[in-house]
Amino acid sequence: MEILKEILQFNRQFVANKEYEQYQTTKFPDKQLVVLSCMDTRLVELLPKAMNLKNGDLKLIKSAGGIVSHPFGSVMRSILVALYELDAKEVAVVGHYDCGMSAIDATRLMKKMNEQGIPEETFSLLKHSGFDLKTWLRGFDDVQEAVKASVDLINNHPLLPKGTAVHGLIIDPHTGRLDTVVDGYEVQKQKAGETGE
Fold it and tell me: What is the pLDDT of residues 120-156, one digit of tens each?
């Protein structure tokens, strides 16, 4: 069966049986938390369970590698909207061990694109337009450094609300164990000490 047909068939029963009732909540996160994590399939259910988060507790943003790759891209916009409009107060960037983005080879990925119908001319056009596709597609070498870089980018964003705690964590996709990379509360204490507040 085609996946869309399977989904829609299930959905009709889901709605008819009112199974949605157990998930009803508001658009505001109860724990006032925004979590940015990787789109890895192993984290779909494991990450919220490992963090003791349930439906309604958080705003969850997913991206390849769980990284903020541009200060004015859609991930950062989502974080800011959650903080300003949806009552979130803290941010957690959660990377994970054994991340596929640490193995991304832009040249190999472009070869796969070409094999699946993207012509070489498209790559040339992007290059001559000043867009560096290889840099855009590149992953990272060290998940801890990737988490730190995203936390730093968020912390230093000119539109971040003052006093926002931005945490950096790494989850083990096998056990759910969380390792702290950046304690956002400590960063806020240091900032307060530097400004004398």
Answer: 999 999 999 999 998 888 889 899 999 999 999 999 9
Pairing of the two strands 165-171 and 178-182: antiparallel
Six-digit token string for 84: 């300003």
Looking at the chain, list the stretches that DSSP marks H as alpha helix, in order from N- to C-terminal side: 3-16, 43-50, 74-85, 106-115, 120-128, 133-137, 143-155, 184-195
pTM, full prediction: 0.90
CB 166 within 8 A of CB 187: yes
The rounded distance, in Å, linking the Cα atoms of 37 and 120 is 33
Q: Where are the domains of the chain?
A: 29-100+141-197, 105-138
Fold of the domain built from segment(s) 29-100+141-197:
Beta-carbonic Anhydrase; Chain A (3.40.1050)
pLDDT tens-digit readout, 20-75: 999 999 999 999 999 999 999 999 999 999 999 999 999 999 999 999 989 999 99
